[in-house]
Amino acid sequence: MNIGNLIKIAINSLFRNKMRTALTMLGIVIGIASVIAMVSIGQASTQSVKSELSTMGSNMIMIMPARQQRGGVDMGMSSSKTLDNKDLESLQKNTRYVAAVSPMVSSNKQLIYGNNNHSCSVNGVSASYLDIRKYEIARGVMFTEEDVKRYNKVCVIGQTVVKELFPNGEDPLGKSIRFGSIPMTVIGILESKGQSGMGDDQDDVVFAPYTTIQKRFLGITYFNMMFASATSEEESELAATEITYILRSNHGIKSGQTDDFDIRTQEELVSTISSVTGLMTTLLAAIASISLVVGGIGIMNIMYVTVTERTKEIGLRMAIGAHNRDIMLQFLCESVILSLIGGIIGIILGLIIAYVASKLMNMPYVVSEMAIFASFIVCALTGIFFGWYPAKKAANMDPISALRYE
């Protein structure tokens, strides 16, 4: 019997019991749809995070104090005072692969203008910080290095701060807003950046000269952290190595001793986040694939029922010359077709679910060709694996006993 006749007979047999066929395929449909949707949503979330991180500066490098321990107690990074002006000047003067560097010191203050107030962290940075973090000035100007040297009480604010302190549409430029009890003049307004991949509001920011925050607010000489940008994304690791060498030299750290600072590049962040989202995607896909096993068991169950129902038909085919192999291939073909049709419907349903989810969660729509190809293979293997034993049972029937079966 040729393959064309086998497929024709299998399809006719399946369509004789449409409802049973549909219910049997349901497990495969749900399993494949779940896997396709989970893989697509996982890849979309990874791509979304990468895109968000790139808006922060694809060649950005973060330099943080190492966590401190006292008497075996973790004091966190806030207790460390290892980064200071000497480090800043060394990085500005003695690096080849660092394009810009900015310190950061933060102070949490209540912002007040008239009857309006807003709780916000005020970040002291240098004039190059905007270039490192890819912020743009919408109106006004950024403060200068002269403002930094003179500890001038000036600031630039984000769009969220504008909405909170100036809800009636008043122009913030030139206005004096108070940080606690200290007045600061608004000289610039930032372009909106929206939320970051971590859910932080990138517009709820205030930037002022770092010396102003150090001297007028906190009374300190060290930095909470530092930001730098490499000359290019490809040279980020070289820049990180260069920074490590300079800081170790400044801090008198000898070979074999632990650094008192941590350096993180955007590439490391992307790699870490991609690894985590990839693991979660694999885990969810593995959980979803359990329904494939359930669907396969359903196919085996129905094929057993089909073999029993068609015992006389099997005996008749054998009586007129059908070989055991032909009988086995006939039922195996039915099982594979049942699985493949369910797989195709599942793939379509999974892509629809992924599309709807991407729109609802404001993520890119990602179609995984590999997941679709793998789904076809899995469906075929499921049909063969779970259909083989019932097909073998049908092929091993005794023709005479099959013809007498009632």
Total beta-strand segments: 12
Helix content: 55-70%
The poorly predicted ranges are: 70-79
Distance between the termini: 27 Å
Overall form: elongated
Return the domain count.
2
Biggest sheet, in brief?
A: 6 strands, mixed, barrel
Mean pLDDT: 81
Which structural class do the helices and strands define? alpha+beta
Order of helices and strands: HHEEEHEEHEHEHEEEHEHEHHHHHH
Strand content: 15-25%
State the strand order across the main sheet: 4-5-10-7-9-8
Number of helices: 14
Describe the structure using short key phrases:
alpha+beta, 2 domains, 12 strands
Summarize the topology:
Blueprint: H1 3-16, H2 18-55, E1 60-65, E2 68-70, E3 73-76, H3 85-93, E4 98-113, E5 116-125, H4 129-133, E6 137-140, H5 145-149, E7 154-157, H6 159-165, E8 176-179, E9 182-190, E10 206-209, H7 210-218, E11 225-230, H8 236-250, E12 261-265, H9 266-288, H10 290-309, H11 311-319, H12 324-360, H13 369-395, H14 399-404
Parallel strand pairs: 5-10, 7-9
Antiparallel strand pairs: 1-11, 1-12, 2-3, 4-5, 4-8, 4-11, 6-9, 7-10, 8-9
Q: What this model shows, in words?
A:
The structure is a single chain. The chain contains 14 helices and twelve strands. The protein is α+β, with helices and mostly antiparallel strands and 406 residues long. It has two domains: 180 residues, no CATH class; 179 residues, no CATH class. The strands form two sheets. It has a six-stranded mixed barrel with strand order 4-5-10-7-9-8, surrounded by four helices. A two-stranded antiparallel ribbon has the order 2-3. The longest helix has 38 residues. About 2% of the residues have low confidence.
